[in-house]
Amino acid sequence: MRFLILGAGGQLATALEDTLAGESVLALAHEQADICDALSVGRHARGFRPEFVINTAAYHRVDECEGAPGPSFAVNAAALAGLAGIANELDAALVHFSTDYVFDGARSQPYRETDPPNPLSVYGISKLAGEQIVCRYARRYFLVRTCGLYGRRRQGSKSMNFVERMLRLAEARHPIRVVNDQVLTPTSAKDLAEALAGLLATGKCGLYHMTNAGQCSWHEFAQEIFRLAGLPADLEPVSRAEYGAKAKRPAYSVLAHRALREAGRPDLRPWQEALADYLRAERQGG
Question: What is the C-alpha to C-alpha distance for residues 269 and 140, in angstroms, rounded to an integer?
Fold first, then answer.
């Protein structure tokens, strides 16, 4: 199969490249093909003729999005119309990733694909708008909501995921404040990429929730990082109100995996196991 990956260099794109190493893959970074420039993406796509157009690019700095709705909607929503048109022209399936932040967190049990979204932030609203564009304009699509993503990036990337940031702060002996009243599921980019590859092979298009199994607060996630890494840390639990982030987050955004099971695909493994493997790989140099 032939895969065009947009957003190369990021943690999910990197995991997908590794997972699809035996396939025909063209991975393009932002500098090579800006998803907001449909003409540029289209030239690459027509030359490569992919069966799947996989978009991993996003404007995902949640607090920054509050002050930058224009760029947020340009990348997370408007660009999807162009990608859908390119995929349709090539008779390819569009694969796009969304977020647990399309929900408001008012539930106390995992959100199903059929539950109505109600985002609380500019980021969440822009991602929901992108979902709606994909569903409306792409003839064939895999729309995947995920949560708490972390993974390896290509060398040279300056951004850090939550796991890396926690380890860096602990090693520097800085006090660490992490919210304890926001519940999610940390998800390994490697596990997500491998599960996605299996799902794409089924050809069963649609909306899917894909995360590792289980749930925890961000504070519990940090505790497990330090326990597995064997690092002492000055870790303080705080509420979302005390932390004072600019954008509102859902208090509970665990995702149920009903559609994945209906497609005959297994659940991803528990988040603790995935985290242990990630830390082990990082210690061994990837």
Answer: 28
Q: Which of 59, 101, 111, 123 is catalytic?
A: 123
CA–CA separation, 22 and 68 (whole Å): 39
CA–CA distance from 93 to each of 61, 90, 130, 142 (Å)?
27, 9, 16, 7
| Residues 250, 106: Cα–Cα separation, whole Å | 7
Strand 235-238 and strand 187-188: the pairing is: unpaired
**Least trusted range by pLDDT, from 49-58, 86-95, 145-154, 248-257:** 145-154
pTM above 0.85, yes or no: yes
Model pLDDT for residues 138-159, shown as the tens digit of each residue = 999 999 999 999 998 876 566 7
Distance CA 147, CA 60 (A): 12
Please work out, in degrees rounded to the nearest 5, the angle formed at the alpha carbon of residue 122 by the alpha carbons of 117 and 125.
25
Distance of CA 119 to the CA centre of its chain: 16
* Residue 123 is among the residues annotated as catalytic for this protein: yes
